[in-house]
Design goal:
The protein has 9 helices and 8 strands. The protein starts with 5 loop residues before the first strand and ends in a 9-residue tail after the last helix. The protein has a 5-stranded parallel β-sheet with strand order 2-6-1-7-8. It is of the alpha/beta class. It is globular, with a radius of gyration of 17 Å.
């Protein structure tokens, strides 16, 4: 039995999983596990090695690849080997490649043990596409966070603008629709709602509202004698 619970947040791109996952992890003093960053890190490394998109190349390119997460003073850093790639993996092209390779068993196997090892003692808020269904099917608390395609596209568009990236809203929406299709139609670990998850639509909700809803669920679990949930 884990000393502390695992909390999962699944959902499509742009639903707010990363922001809300970090806030919950800070509130609980838990580890924040951004699984999307792991797949982006693999995609970045493959790109730097000249990956052309052929699956037969993957085994050689992934051989010896080491991907890890490191929380430094509350900030999540992603490493491939000894390189900190945190600031290099947030482009749209890397995101699309990450979505593509996440359907490949070799890549999923590479990262599954990384994710489970981080959470073996519990005390983790894990967000991604299959956290509550495949990676942590026994998680004590599960959420599924969603929002309309228009809302998710708008959020992503403004996020990219803040980074100084010149993008068109219609292109961002097209990329998100493509990613949605890849995530939901892939034969391995598709994006689905875990049957035991609480579904939250964040379309018309502020971040603080969503976090308060989740805190309420966690508090109710705490009163049901779940151990290790007390925030600082």
């Amino acid at each position: 039995m884990r000393k502390k619970p695992v909390i999962t947040i699944d959902g499509p791109a742009g639903a707010g999983k990363s922001t809300i996952g970090r806030l919950l992890a800070d509130w609980l003093s838990f580890i924040y596990l951004d699984t999307g960053a792991l797949y982006r890190a693999v995609a970045y490394d493959l790109t730097s090695k000249g990956f052309t998109g052929r699956e037969e190349e993957l085994r050689a390119l992934c051989r010896g690849m080491q991907v890890r997460l490191n929380n430094r003073v509350g900030q999540l850093h992603v490493f491939v080997g000894g390189e900190d790639v945190t600031a290099k993996i947030r482009t749209e092209s890397i995101g699309l490649l990450a979505s593509t390779i996440s359907a490949i068993p070799l890549v999923r196997d590479l990262l599954l043990s990384v994710q489970r090892d981080i959470a073996k003692e519990g005390g983790v808020v894990a967000e991604g596409r299959d956290m509550g269904t495949v990676v942590f099917p026994d998680a004590e608390i599960k959420f599924y966070l969603d929002a309309s395609i228009r809302e998710r596209s708008d959020r992503r568009y403004h996020e990219l603008l803040r980074r100084g990236e010149g993008v068109a809203l219609r292109d961002v929406e097209s990329d998100i629709l493509l990613r949605d299709r890849k995530d939901s139609e892939r034969p391995i670990s598709p994006l689905i709602v875990p049957p035991d998850a609480m579904v939250i639509d964040s379309t018309d909700k502020a971040i603080s509202e969503v976090v308060d809803i989740m805190k309420g669920v966690i508090d109710r679990c705490r009163t049901s004698h779940m151990r290790g949930m007390d925030p600082p």
